[in-house]
Amino acid sequence: MTRYLLILGLSVFLTACGNAEPYTLYRGSPTIENFRIHIATFNANEREAYNMENCQIAADLFMKQQGVTVKYWCEKGNYKK
Fold first, then answer.
1. Is the pLDDT of residue 72 over 90?
2. Which of 40, 70, 43 is nearest to 58 (CA)?
3. Which domain range does residue 67 map to?
4. Is residue 7 a part of any domain in this protein?
5. 1 belongs to a structural domain
6. Domain-located, residue 47
7. What's the pTM value of the predicted model, to 2 decimals?
């Protein structure tokens, strides 16, 4: 019984530790003001900073491409219209 409770407690702890908030990458439109286009959602089961950092790295890489004129940004949470 003790072994079962230990395994159950450890499972709950690991799930809580890895249950990070997702971040979603969007881009704007060159012709439509305040337009949001969903690019990707970062929802790895890691610490929250992991998803945020990966989303920001992707946004920066997209914006650094030659000829890109639209803005890319990250928002905390899943995709929203």
1. yes
2. 40
3. 20-76
4. no
5. no
6. yes
7. 0.73
Domain count of the fold of the chain: 1
- Token look-up 């900073």 returns 49
Closest CA to 55 of 68, 65, 41: 41
**Of the candidates 15, 14, 24, 5, the residue with the CA atom closest to the CA atom of residue 77:** 24
In terms of Cβ atoms closer than 10 Å to its own Cβ (0-12, 13-18, 19+), residue 72 is: buried
Residue 69 pLDDT more than 60?
A: yes
Confirm whether 2 is domain-assigned: no
DSSP state letters, 13-68? HHHHHH-PPPEEEEE--SSSTT--EEEEEE--SS-HHHHHHHHHHHHHHHHTSTT-
- End-to-end Cα, the chain, rounded Å: 48
| Distance between CA atoms of residues 12 and 69, nearest Å | 45
Distance between CA 59 and CA 61 in Å, rounded? 6
